[in-house]
Design a protein that fits this description.
Largest sheet: 6 strands, mixed
Number of strands: 10
Low-confidence stretches: none
Radius of gyration: 19 Å
Strand order of the largest sheet: 6-7-8-3-9-10
Oligomer: single chain
Number of helices: 9
Structural class: alpha/beta
Length: 255
């Protein structure tokens, strides 16, 4: 399969006046085109740091990161980054929030505006394009945030706990919704989450990190025998519990 992302022997540490705090040690994995990979691990182990390195917000101390075969600093690949909160601006309508990334990157045109309107229509927000964020539910706001990311046509989506601010019921619905949108758009996605059920319901593979400094404990491929392989259908399948228990056991094997 075609690789869109490769990390090889990544090391990273935080430096303060009090000394060095290692965060990541010898992290190596790849992400294939159209693949959805989840990363889980203990709280504070460095999962979000890993996404920041891939996004180019931090620089690894050792190792290499390649995107579409080019070193990160040389790559022109568009990376979409979806955070824990939707970060929508109340003073802008949903439509103008969706256009924000296009404006920042000087990509606003008749074609990209048409794409924004198309995505709002496809994913059920056309009737709310002139509304403000406070007029939408949490799930609808997250959908708007994803559309804002997708309209930039990123090759890779980085998802940092994107559903954590939602209540449990909304989280299930939005996770299913956004998971299917990412599949439909055939995007390559890397999800960081504390929620093992979320990881098992959404991903093709789960990468399990150790406690800080994080290294890769194990990578578990997820295979479901389903006619409609959706996140909600996965949760009701016999394989779901087995994968959940396997990941839970691996995360807690030292306790």
């Amino acid at each position: 399969m075609e690789q869109v992302l490769e990390l090889k022997n990544i090391h990273y540490a935080y430096h303060t006046l009090d000394g060095e705090t290692p965060a990541l040690i010898d992290i190596s994995f790849s992400l294939n085109k159209g693949e959805f990979v989840a990363i889980v691990g203990p709280s504070g182990c460095g999962k979000s740091t890993l996404l920041s390195l891939i996004a180019g917000l931090l620089t690894p101390e050792k190792g290499l990161i390649k995107i579409n075969g080019k070193y990160l600093r040389e790559s022109t690949t568009n990376i979409g980054y979806m955070l824990q909160h939707d970060e929508l601006f109340e003073w802008r309508t949903i439509y103008h929030n969706v256009l924000l990334g296009l404006e920042v990157q000087h990509m606003l045109s008749a074609k990209t505006k048409a794409k924004a309107n198309e995505l709002l229509d496809i994913y059920g927000l056309k009737g709310f394009k002139n509304s403000h964020p406070s007029e939408l539910s949490g799930g609808m706001r997250q959908r708007a945030a994803l559309i804002r990311t997708l309209v930039l046509e990123p090759d890779i989506l980085l998802l940092d706990e994107p559903f954590s601010a939602l209540d449990y019921q909304t989280r299930l619905t939005v996770g299913d919704d956004i998971g299917q949108i990412i599949r439909r758009e055939e995007k390559s996605a890397l999800l960081v989450t504390h929620d093992l059920s979320e990881a098992v319901s959404l991903a093709d593979r789960v990468i399990i990190l150790s406690g800080r400094p994080a290294s890769i404990r194990q990578t578990i491929p997820l295979i479901f025998d389903l006619e409609q392989n959706t996140p909600l259908n996965r949760r009701n399948s016999p394989e779901f519990k087995n994968y959940f228990n396997l990941i839970w056991k691996e995360l807690n094997c030292d306790e």
